[in-house]
Amino acid sequence: MKSETIRSRVRVGVIGGARAKAGPLAQAYDVGRMIAGRGAILVCGGLAGIMEAAARGAHEAGGLTVGILPGTQPADANPHIDIALATGLGYSRNALVAMNADVLIAIDGEYGTLSEIAYGRIHGKPVIGLGSWELEGVLAASSPEEAVRLAFEALAARPRP
After folding, report:
1. Under a CB-based contact definition with an 8 Å cutoff, are residues 94 and 110 in contact?
2. Residue 40 has what DSSP assignment?
3. Which of 9, 52, 75, 97 is the most buried (most CB within 10 A)?
4. What domains can you pick out in the chain, each with its CATH number?
5. What was the pLDDT predicted at 158?
6. Percent over 70 (pLDDT), the chain
7. Quick one: residue 90, left, alpha or beta (phi over 0 = left, psi -120 to 50 = alpha)?
8. C-beta of residue 104 within 8 angstroms of C-beta of residue 117
């Protein structure tokens, strides 16, 4: 694939906790599949839980996945990550996840997810929440389908840099 093609593809960040229950994990998987189905790149924190479920969905649907890892070892990425970027930054890598997405979909999650939402909003990124933090500036979705639809609608409504 030509690099110009990859650079022009939409990057959807899927954010959420490493420890999640079956319901949110299934939602993340479905979101990942739908992101890949739209030809977008899935960006996440690259580890377990919501990140792994979304990456698995995207990967199994033929999509490209990028994991921005908190540690120093690319091998720490879950097996569904195509491009593992080790940062050595710990939770500070959350800023990089937000900055490397055109739009964010938050699924479940705790304070790490909240920090990614905040970084996304600070930098003017649309954020969709699916069973996540209910905050001003976060568009609430009630299903994976609605979350992905809202994400792409939000992108279509604003010019890309």
Report:
1. no
2. P
3. 97
4. 3-156 (3.40.50.450)
5. 84
6. 96
7. left
8. yes
Per-residue model confidence as pLDDT tens digits over 104-156: 999 999 999 999 999 999 999 999 999 999 999 999 999 999 999 999 999 99
Quickly count: other Cβ atoms within 10 Å of residue 122's Cβ: 11
Q: pLDDT tens-digit profile of 92-104? A: 999 999 999 999 9
CA angle 115, 121, 122 (to 5 degrees): 85
Among 133, 105, 108, 100, CA closest to 33: 105
- Neighbour tally for 141: CB within 10 Å: 23
Looking at 9-143, list the stretches that DSSP marks H as alpha helix, in order from N- to C-terminal side.
22-37, 50-60, 93-99, 111-122
Two structure tokens written together for 146: 């609605």
Q: Are 105 and 148 in contact (CB under 8 A)?
A: yes
Task: Report the alpha-carbon distance of residue 74 to residue 55 in Å, rounded.
Answer: 15
Taking the model in full, what pTM does it have? 0.95
